[in-house]
């Protein structure tokens, strides 16, 4: 439970993942604090964060869980033949980075096994801090502050700066074009991803004058892009995603407003790392993003 609360960032989110009620998780958290004789969780208006004693207990919990896994393998006579690296990616990065990086690793380091998970940048940052993943591909917007305020700072390497585009139907209002003026987007129907101040996600154009009209809402990129292809609305996308657009979708640069740039980062905990994690990081940095070719 401690691990899930730390990773989820709130009692409510942890309860959803564990299949408990929020009150049950809160009671277990209070019981754990009483047993430890220390305040383990800092309750905030926007969620929960582990205190220093909580982080100390979390490190021991991770060690215990790893030892239990190792004991089960020994009892079952299993000999690990691969080195495991746990990689997290924000959703739109996976379609572009992951296949090429895994193909390179299969050729250069076949002894490695990479498991992946998708999430938002805040969620993946928490997962790094709690030890649930080893590497994370994160997104950053200007002025590119660190993904969290915790110490020590995460080790960050820039993979790419990518410009945001508007994805539109190839047969719709903007057919045959490669750009659109921001004023033309004001009354357009948008397909957006539900967002919050804690987890800002792509949807309506960030620099749109006024409030955009959201026609459909989805967290799934495939759904969003196929709705765009069907002419049901437009959506904001990173330029790096354009090589994997489905048929019927075009990417448009936005004129009349400052460019919207997002930085793609590779993050890990500071300090020494393992050869396996280094190999995965190098594969990701070598592959990078495929240069965009806007479709017309």
TrEMBL record:
Listed SUPFAM superfamilies: Periplasmic binding protein-like II (SSF53850), Winged helix' DNA-binding domain (SSF46785)
Record Gene3D superfamilies: Periplasmic binding protein-like II, Winged helix-like DNA-binding domain superfamily/Winged helix DNA-binding domain
One GO cellular component, as annotated: protein-DNA complex
Domain HTH lysR-type: 1-51
Xref: PANTHER family: LYSR SUBSTRATE-BINDING (PTHR30346:SF29), TRANSCRIPTIONAL DUAL REGULATOR HCAR-RELATED (PTHR30346)
Coiled coil: none
Keyword terms of this UniProt record: Activator, DNA-binding, Transcription, Transcription regulation
Species classification: Bacteria, Bacillati, Actinomycetota, Actinomycetes, Mycobacteriales
Family assignment from sequence similarity: Belongs to the LysR transcriptional regulatory family.
GO MF annotations in UniProt: DNA binding; DNA-binding transcription factor activity
Pfam families linked to this entry: HTH_1 (PF00126), LysR_substrate (PF03466)
Keyword DNA-binding: yes
Protein name: LysR family transcriptional regulator
